[in-house]
């Protein structure tokens, strides 16, 4: 897809995907799916048995251009367990000036579980986009997820000299805010290289997961995670029933490795499940 790819009203994508997971006779099924435009899923997978349903969200155009509007809504009903991921990185291409939006909304009912583990988002130089993620939990619902952002394409020698990317993450339980995180990245801004900002790094990410008291995750700076996560720039902590990790570095794969290790520990100690990375990650 070329630069400034067709930002006319007719060329911009308007896409929406609604998914609903339900528990049926000890099995989690994809009970409802509806899509408009180029955002879809093919079929559910059960690599770890019938209780947990794995789904891959597909965006056939392969990238987001100025003016695109993508919306993903996922509802997990009581007792169901779902893991949702993407087969490849989300690429946001440069824009002639029109802002694109990726809107993600997740609702998890009591006694249900959702894992949102997408591949990284690559924001090309001169892109203009916002990504908003809202997670609403009911009762004792559990959730684990991450978002990883790459500013520019370092492997191709591309920086982030212009453009804008805004990222908002919100987690609430029964209407009570548990976590709110917002980042604004302006291309060429001082904070990209300043010691008080990204310090020259261009990859940043946030991991967040429910970690209720008594689940074997003690409150504090989570130094006990060191053996599981291994050395690296990510830092983790547990506070008010949440396990939170922040990555600022230069390598999306390293971010996914560290977040993946934290996710595996969460699965074992909180969700009571054996870690089972999606098969698509190996392709």
- SSE-based structural type: mainly beta
* Number of domain units: 1
The low-pLDDT segments are 1-6
Percent range for β-strand residues: 35-45%
Radius of gyration, whole Å:
18 Å
How would you sum up the global shape?
globular
Summarize the main sheet: 9 strands, mixed
Mean pLDDT: 91
Number of helices: 2
First-residue to last-residue Cα separation: 22 Å
What is the N-to-C succession of helices and strands? EEEEEEEEEEEEEEHEEH
- Helical content class: under 10%
Number-wise, the strands total: 16
InterPro entries: UreD
Protein name: Urease accessory protein UreD
Family: Belongs to the UreD family.
Organism: Solidesulfovibrio fructosivorans JJ]
Describe this structure in words.
With 283 residues, this protein is mainly β. It has one domain (14-282). The chain contains two helices and 16 strands. The strands form two sheets. Strands 3, 5, 6, 8, 9, 11, 14, 15 and 16 form a nine-stranded mixed sheet that branches. A seven-stranded mixed sheet has the order 2-1-4-7-10-12-13, with no helix packed on it. A hairpin with a 2-residue loop joins strand 1 (14-24) and strand 2 (27-36). The model is unreliable at 1-6 (pLDDT under 50). Pfam families: UreD. One of its GO terms (molecular function) is nickel cation binding. InterPro entries: UreD. This is Urease accessory protein UreD.
């Amino acid at each position: 897809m070329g630069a400034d790819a067709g930002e006319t009203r007719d060329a911009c994508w308007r896409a929406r995907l609604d998914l609903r997971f339900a528990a049926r006779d000890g099995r989690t099924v994809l009970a409802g799916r509806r899509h408009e435009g180029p955002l879809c899923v093919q079929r559910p997978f059960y690599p770890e048995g019938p209780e947990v349903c794995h789904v891959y969200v597909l965006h056939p155009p392969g990238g987001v251009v100025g003016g695109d509007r993508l919306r993903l809504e996922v509802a997990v009903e009581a007792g169901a367990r779902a893991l949702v991921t993407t087969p490849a990185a989300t690429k946001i291409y440069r824009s002639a000036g029109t802002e694109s939006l990726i809107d993600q909304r997740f609702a998890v009912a009591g006694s249900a579980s959702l894992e949102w583990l997408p591949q990284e988002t690559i924001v090309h130089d001169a892109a203009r986009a916002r990504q908003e993620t809202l997670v609403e939990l009911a009762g004792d619902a559990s959730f684990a997820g991450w978002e990883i952002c790459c500013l520019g394409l370092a492997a191709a020698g591309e920086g982030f000299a212009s453009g804008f990317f805004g990222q908002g993450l919100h987690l609430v339980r029964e209407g009570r805010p548990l976590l709110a995180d917002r980042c604004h990245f302006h291309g060429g801004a001082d904070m990209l290289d300043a010691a008080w900002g990204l310090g020259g790094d261009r990859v940043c990410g946030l991991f967040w997961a429910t970690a209720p008291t008594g689940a074997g995750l003690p409150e504090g700076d989570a130094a006990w995670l060191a053996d599981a996560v291994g050395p690296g720039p990510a830092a983790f902590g547990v506070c008010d029933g949440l396990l939170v990790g922040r990555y600022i570095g230069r390598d999306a794969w390293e971010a996914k490795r560290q977040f993946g290790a934290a996710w595996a520990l969460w699965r074992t100690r909180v969700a009571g499940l054996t870690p089972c990375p999606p098969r698509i990650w190996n392709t």
